[in-house]
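Moderator note: this is an archived Q&A kept for reference. The question asked for a predicted structure of one protein chain; the sequence and the answer are reproduced below.
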Amino acid sequence: MIKRITMPAGGQTTDQALVAQWHVKKGDRVKRGDLLLDVETDKTVLAVESFAAGIVIDILVPQGETASAGKVLALIGNDEDLKNYKKNLTKTVTISDTVQPMMTDTAQTMGADTIQMATNDEYRPIMQKNTSAEVAPLGSTIQTSDIKVMPNAKKYARENGIDLIAFAKDTGMRTIKQADLKAAPAAMRHTGTETTPHTAYIDVPHSSMRRTIARRMLESTQNIPSYQVMMEVDMTACIEFRTAINARQNHVKVGYNDIIMKSIGMAVRNYPNINAAWTATAVRQYSNVNIGLAVSLNSGLIVPVIAGVERLGILQIARETSDKIAKARAGKLSSSETTGGTITLSNMGMYPVQHFTAIINPPEVCILALGSVQEKHIVHDGNTKIAPIMTITASFDHRVIDGAYGAQFLNELKQLLEVPALLFC
């Protein structure tokens, strides 16, 4: 009996995932537990292993395409299953009540089946005989439903970045074969890097992570009435505090993020609406302070969560932070390590950025944006001195946090950072 390999539900904010890489191909024999493919969710990259032994009968979702959770990605069976599958390729093969195989390159050997081009450049089988021949040019009136693409032509087009719709308009072909694409002048192939007299460009496909970032940031700006409060912090004592901690032990390096997260956890005690969410009927105040730390990756942004910072020591926070940042950059964070955040911290202190505004990560109501520590002239007790100053810019959800409340919380945080001994009171 044919076994189905389906898309796992790895994301928490979307049910879509990208087939990042196949590690097997059709016809390969696999054992239970063998790595089949990697899928990229909105948060991380997941390895999908085979739960069955047998032959990879078909791969239904090519590398680079997205699919919903539960969609069949591949079929695995025995030699008899493979034989029956090939025999019935042009018919509906019953694998379950809801699954039908897609046409693959094997269809070319049938000699008569064609594939209909959908408007989103995904090609799905239609069960009809190819009775059409090449016709007069269709020009700008061409309809994508009229275009038929042979399986090997579809594969050739995908591998070479050829726009099949544009090719059909230029040539007037309703039926496109691989030989047609190879024989056509390069000017007719319309790859994704066309050059005009005025501009040149390359289209970089959206990753699952980038699509999720775009959707959630749009959701935040459209639905949350946010405002910002900015406050400067004299980091002199905090710098000395960090230096003293790291001088006393060498097991883990404590960073400013670790001290700031601990300080947030302590400051929230008196301002519970900072560690909350807006619901239709109430302001939900969370018991634990779970801080999400924004980590920049080449592919986008990911936010691992340090849970219960109010209960953890600074060294414990440092260990967890270091571990999760390493996992994030290796693409090995689990979904449980990126969910459940109640406040987000975004630090651009490694760049010469004085201050910036961060967008609230719903359903949270607060995000703190940290600029770099810069030397500035300040006045203290009537005297001017130079001090290391960091600017904190908080974005608050005004439905939950009023201006004075937000300013009071930031002032509490400022006092803890300027007098770190208060963290132990």
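Archived answer notes: The chain has a mean pLDDT of 81.
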